Amino acid sequence: MTNVTETPRRSAVVTGSSRGIGRAVAEELARAGFDVCVNCSSERGLSGVQQLADQLAAEHGVRAIAVAANVADAAEAEALVAAAHEAFGRVDVLVNNAGITRDGLIARMKEEDFDAVIDVNLKGTFNCCKAAAQRMMKQRYGRIVNLSSVVGVAGNAGQANYAASKAGVIGLTKSLARELAARNVTANAVAPGFIATDMTDALSEKQREAILGRIAAKRLGAPEDVAALVRFLASEEAGYITGQVVCIDGGMSL
Ligand code: NAP
Questions:
Q1: Which of 15, 41, 215 is the best mutation target for the ligand 1 pocket, counting ligand atoms within 8 Å of the beta carbon and taking the most?
Q2: Would you tell me how many other CB atoms lie within 10 Å of the CB of residue 210?
Q3: Catalytic residue among 162, 185, 193, 194
Q4: How far is Cα 94 from Cα 147, in angstroms, rounded to an integer?
Q5: What is the distance between the alpha carbons of residues 230 and 209, in angstroms, rounded to a whole number?
Q6: Where along the sequence do coiled-coil regions lie (predicted)?
Q7: 194 Cβ closer than 6 Å to some ligand 1 atom
Q8: From the CA of 97, how far away is ligand 1's center (Å)?
Q9: Among residues 14, 10, 144, which one has the least CA distance to residue 89?
Q10: Domain spanning 11-248: which CATH class is it, in words?
Q11: 198 lines ligand 1 (CB under 6 A)
């Protein structure tokens, strides 16, 4: 008799998946057969993400749950990961996508705007990584994908808080990669350039034109472009890639 080890059904938590890149990632992972836990920041958005979860389950035959949790709060981040673990029996993939901006030049940037961005983008990523890593180490399998930004690599005038948070995400990711690799848990960061979402809708026409002038591909990215990359890094096949920062920016940073 041959000894066949069955691959368990994989599950994923995608933070900030009510819209934009996170939503596209949740859809892409469900399409690839993952059970998915979608998330928004507060109870106010819960009916929207519950609708998304129901849609993913109906369209792709996967299990899907919706959880409202502010990732900046350690207890809520733990509850988010725990809910997915309880519903699916395991947490194989964590995509730390939740993020905010509070732009302004440093001379005028308020302390609370600096703190808010660090709290959600960096501490929120830490909180969820901590909750998931414990479970992934136990099951000796995991894929962590953290959303950084090209701004975290190169900096950007008017985004000192955001750039610091996204650079922090890179340091966090590389450290986790070193800590977790021996347990078959990878951690990578993706660094998008300009992707057409609510976050970039705020740009003026002049800013948009200036940005397009710097992008070799001459277009903003789509959330689906990022989702395809995340899906690959979240796959079993990507098991020998860890601690990397993958830019996805249409050639902007060339
Ligand atoms: P978006 O359209 O503004 O969506 C942000 C998502 O994050 C929403 O689902 C939002 O949920 C959620 N969120 C915000 N604060 C949260 C919190 N405290 N706890 C849980 N969820 C929270 O953003 P996006 O453009 O898709 O960006 C997604 C990620 O990619 C971010 O990390 C961003 O920094 C990064 N990124 C984006 C671009 C770009 O060009 N768009 C470029 C580089 C990197 P609610 O609906 O509850 O607010």
A1: 41
A2: 11
A3: 162
A4: 11
A5: 28
A6: none
A7: yes
A8: 6
A9: 10
A10: alpha beta
A11: yes
159 lines ligand 1 (CB under 6 A): no
Where are the strands (E) in the chain, listed by range? 11-14, 35-40, 64-68, 93-96, 142-147, 185-192, 245-248
Q: Indicate if 141 belongs to the active site.
A: no
Q: What Cα–Cα distance (Å) separates residue 29 from each residue in 47, 218, 226?
A: 21, 28, 12
Residues present in the chain in total: 254
Question: Bridge-partner residues for 98, per DSSP?
Answer: none
pTM above 0.85, yes or no: yes
* Chain centre to alpha carbon of residue 25: 8
Residue nearest ligand 1's atom 39 by CA: 195
Rounded to whole angstroms, the Cα distance separating 218 from 54 reads 36
- Token pair of 181 as six digits: 């690799």
pLDDT of residue 203: 84
Structure tokens at 58: 């109906």
17 assigned to a ligand binding site: yes
The answer to whether 163 and 221 are in contact (CB under 8 A) is: no
- Which ligand 1 atom sits nearest the alpha carbon of residue 119? 18
> pLDDT tens digits, residue range 61-76?
999 999 999 999 999 9
Q: What pLDDT, in 10s, does the model give residues 149-170?
A: 999 999 999 999 999 999 999 9
CA distance 48 to 54: 10
Q: What is the DSSP letter of 9?
A: P
| Ligand 1 binding pocket includes 70 (Cβ within 6 Å) | yes
